[in-house]
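Appendix B, example 12.
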Amino acid sequence: MKLGRVALVVAVIAVVAAAAVYVLNVRDETTPAFAAAAPDSIERGRYLATAGDCIACHTALGGAPFAGGRPIQTPFGTVYSSNITPDTATGIGAWTRADFWRALHNGRSKNGRLLYPAFPYPNFTRVTPDDAAAIFDYLRSLRPVAHPNTPNELRFPYDMQAAVAVWRALFFRPGVFEPEPARDAEWNRGAYLVRGLGHCDACHATRNIFGAVSHQLDLGGGLIPMQNWYAPPLISSTGAGVAGWEPGDIHALLRSGISPRGMAMGPMAEVVFRSTQHLAEADARAIATYLHSYARSAPRKVEPPAADSRVLARGAAVYADHCADCHGSDGEGAFPAYPGLARNPSVTEALPASAIKAVLNGGYPPVTAANPRPYGMPPFTNRLSPADIAAVLTYVRGAWGNGAAPVTAFDVERYR
C-alpha cells in the first residue's frame, strides 16, 4: 500500500511538473503587426545584423556567409549554427517575418522546435518587432546557399527537447526591451544594444551549472566556456571592469580594437572586427554611456599573497629577455603599438586566464578602419615552459604597483 501511495505521489508531481513546463513554454506566442517594409529596410537590417554579429556564429570557417555549420562548443556538447540564407530547402527561404520573430522572441523554430540557447534568444527576445523584421528583410536579400544543417552533437539528456523545455521553464521569459523612463534616449539605446541585440552577456557574465546567465552577476564578467578567455565585467569598476573606463576609451575599443585601457584580443578581437567597428558613432557612444553609468568607487584593495623571491627573480629574467623590448623595462608600453603593463587591470585581474592565453598564443588586435595595421604579440607556447610563463606573469602582476596574486604552472596548464 505504501509503495502504491509513493508511486501516486511521484506520478502527481511528475504531472504537475510537466504541466508547469508546458505552461511556461507557451508564453507570449502572439505575433505583432509588422509595418510594411520601408525603402531602407534591407540596409537597416544589414546594419542591425552587423551590430548583432550574426555572421560570426552563422558562418563556418571557410564557408559561405550565413550558411551555418559553425561548431559552437558548450559544456554539454557541440551545437552547430543553422543556415539563415534564403534557401528554401535548407535555409529560411520558406520563413515569414512572423516565423523569424518567433525564433528571436520565443526561441522556437518555424516548425515549433525549441531552439538551444546557444542561439542567444534570451537576449534577442528584447529586439523590437520592427528591428526583427528589418533583419529578416536583409537576410532574405542574400544569395541563397544550399547547405543542410549539421546535426548537433549533444550528450544525453541535453539532446532532448524535454531538456530544453525544462531549461526554458527555469531560465527564460520572453519580453521586448522597455526603456527606463528615468534615463535619457542615449542611455536606453546603449542598454538595448548591450542587453539585447549585442548579447554581450553571452560572454561577459557568470553562468550557472545549467549554462544560464546568473542575473545576480549579470555582465559581471566570466570565463568563456570551452575557450578559457576571461571576459571582464562590463558594469563594474573593480579589476578589469569596463565601467570604470572613461567613455572615450570604451568608444575607442569598440571602434578601433585598441584604447589606452586595453586592446581587444581573443574572442573580442573577432567581435570588433566583424561587428563593433561598424557601429554608427551614435551607437558606439550610447554603449559607452550606458556602461560608464555603472562606474563606482573601487573598494579598498586587499593585499595578495607574497610571491616566492626565486620565482620573481626568474620572472624578471624572462621579462628582460622576451618582453621588455616591446612593453618597456618599467612596463610603460608604447601605445598604440604595445600596451602598457604597469597598473593594467587586464593583467592584474583576479582570474589570470586571459593573460595566460595571451602569453601562450599571442595574438593581434583586429584590423579596423581606425587601426588598419595593428601590432601583434608572438606566441610563447613553444618558447617558454609553463614554469617560465607562470614566473613572468607573477613578476608582471607584482611589479610597478600592480600588486596581483602570483600565477602557478598549474594555472598555465589549466587555461592552456
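Residues 9-13 have pLDDT under 50 and may be disordered. The first helix runs from residue 2 to 24.
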